Amino acid sequence: MVFTSIVNYVRARGPDEFWRKRKIFKLAAHYIGRRRNCYSIAIRNVHRALVYATKGRKLKKLDMADLWTTRVRAGCEQHGIDYHTFRESLTREDILLSRKTLADLACWEPLTFKSLADIAKIRAENDGINCLSRLENSDGIVSWMLKNKNEY
Amino acid sequence: MSLKRVQQWATFARVWHIYDAAWQNPFDSAKLLRKHLMGMHKPIYHPLNDCGDHVIVINSKYIALPGDEWKKRVYFHHTGYPGGASWTLAWELHTKDPTMILKKAVYNSMAGNLQRRYTMERLHLFPDTEVPENLLKNVSNQLEQLRPKPKRLDHYDENYVKEFPKLIDLPKDYVLR
Q: Which SUPFAM superfamilies does this entry report, sorted A to Z (chain A) (predicted)?
């Protein structure tokens, strides 16, 4: 390549080494030992941390979705209705609430959630979805001890 | 204010459940017990929220393993020394400690994190119906059994069995085994 201008003879070296490394050290500031002070070790760990962060953005959403399902399922069981029946019945009733909203209602507004469960139960009964649990029949009272112990 | 305070106590209070393991599959029961031990049956559940309940399990001596698992299921143990491996069949383990199969089933059904040991401390296993009075007085709920407990033939009333409608009368010389 032929350079016609004198400026291009100067070697271009990118950003200054100090500033380039400083970006990495800032990300490694809270690490322990040589990971925060030695550049070659710091950059390895920073790269690994950034990969975890990238994966974590996806996993966080999945974890939250799992948590909402667990909470809604727990709320449903308290009112004696199966989770899938509950969601299906609410859809048929045109109550289109998301899992997050339902989980918030189950956690913070239990009476609202109970009314939703009642609506779902009536709908499930009308539509003949036979997944309602036997919660009504169990009294929740310890009655087995009153029976004889020598049954086994 | 005081109402809110009491509400807070009531929400986070530990409930004591009792579960009759007689004739139950321990591996199906483990899922139910795990749910109550970790507090996953409450809408306030969060992995960092210490809201698990206590469960007392009675009659763990009378669990029912599916199929031929009494003979086939093997529990592994290693002492750490060379040649220290040992394999114990389920029926052998059950004769040594009638609570161990259920305990291991619950323990293995949970994720192996730091919380697991503390969660297991809330599980109280008893081989029969002999439960200490100080534990039993806490109990306020009974967990429903996963499958109905069948009634044995010799536990029925003798006259009821005798008068039960029969299809045929067996011959006198027929040997019943």
A: Ribosomal protein L20 (SSF74731)
